[in-house]
Design brief:
Blueprint (H helix, E strand, L loop, with lengths): L1 E4 L4 H13 L4 E4 L7 H6 L7 E3 L7
Parallel strand pairs: 1-2
Antiparallel strand pairs: 1-3
């Protein structure tokens, strides 16, 4: 899995803490949510973070 988000977002931090407590390994891809690029907009059309990309490539 891959977590996409801004390191300063409180919502991203909450997800990272939950994943660590659950013992789930997840790659973190830091992106600037204030200036969303095409990768973020492909996964989250509104440009909101966090986005969790599952192993099959589908975003959550």
């Amino acid at each position: 899995m891959q977590l996409i988000g801004s390191p300063t977002s409180p919502y991203v931090r909450k997800v990272r803490v939950y994943l660590a407590e659950a013992g789930t390994t997840c790659d973190f891809l830091p992106l600037d949510a204030w200036h969303p690029d095409a990768r973020l907009l492909d996964m989250a059309p509104l440009g909101k973070v966090p986005v969790l990309v599952r192993d099959d490539g589908s975003p959550l």
